[in-house]
Amino acid sequence: MELLTQNDLPLQKPTAVAIGLFDGIHAGHKALIDEIDAHKELMSVVYTFDTKPSHAAYKNIYTVKEKIDIFECMGVEALYMQPFTEEFSKLTKEEFLQRLVNDFCARHITVGFDFRFGKNAEGDAAFLRANADRYGYTVSIIPEVGCEEGKVSSTLIRAHIERGEMEQTARLLDRFYFIDGRIEKGKKLGSAIGFPTANMSTEKLLPRYGVYATIVQIDGKCYPAVTNVGVKPTVTDEGIPNIETFIFDFSGDVYDEKMRVNFVSFIRGEKAFANVEELSAEIARNADTAREMLSDLSVYKKYLLC
């Protein structure tokens, strides 16, 4: 997949462009991607907006790098992340449309039914339809994608993640919720009680603090695992959240390796134990639960990102 910048514009190949924020890249967003992919004579382009850094009040569902990986696995040919500058925010709806046609050589445009664009969000699907003949493109408006709880949305997905409801999250995303990172050096507390862990930290959205059955991907291989997300109240009072993963039947030095942790199912919430012995016994029970659940990884393959 080609990562486009302003220096690549104007494009010379005619394109089918899907436009949106793509926060969760969920089932509703997949409908947009599938629609532009159907136009085989055109280069498929996703036009989205740069992800703002996570902060205390708002954590991103995916990092920029994770989004790139997802779009690539979905078969998107080119991706453009629009910097949301003051200049861009002042573009009128007409100027934004002209940018699509002239700079992106758009011959087909796909948006969601509620997409708004241009200064003061004055542009909408009706405006795109009304100007299609004038500018020489076709347009598809993707209707609301529903689920048992109503509309599939990043807000709904975020709520499931924060409650630790990973099965519901996977159904809405069409993949397991995952966190990518590099394995960091820990304090080897897990090794001391018989459960060596691979540790990661992240600024993105964490699921509910607790223990999960997970599938870990390292160097293209999948491993069943059990993962703790939280602040480890039994062994530290630092209050700093991290992700600790005990990978089953795995050996080797993986420090500084890239790792993806796919969250399959919630096992229990975070709790403080009276002592390390109680903690060790509970980890053993949690590991047994996860092992049984993940005894056949092939049944989960469709929920793993390529």
From TrEMBL:
One of its GO terms (biological process) is FMN biosynthetic process. The lineage of its organism: Bacteria, Bacillati, Bacillota, Clostridia, Christensenellales. GO terms for molecular function: ATP binding; FMN adenylyltransferase activity; riboflavin kinase activity. Belongs to the ribF family. PANTHER family: RIBOFLAVIN KINASE (PTHR22749:SF6), RIBOFLAVIN KINASE/FMN ADENYLYLTRANSFERASE (PTHR22749). It catalyses: FMN + ATP + H(+) = FAD + diphosphate; riboflavin + ATP = FMN + ADP + H(+). This is Riboflavin biosynthesis protein. Its EC number is 2.7.1.26, 2.7.7.2. Pathway: Cofactor biosynthesis; FMN biosynthesis; FMN from riboflavin (ATP route): step 1/1; Cofactor biosynthesis; FAD biosynthesis; FAD from FMN: step 1/1. It is an enzyme of class 2 (transferase). The keyword Transferase applies. The keyword Aminoacyl-tRNA synthetase does not apply. Keywords: ATP-binding, FAD, Flavoprotein, FMN, Kinase, Multifunctional enzyme, Nucleotide-binding, Nucleotidyltransferase, Transferase. It comes from the Bacteria.
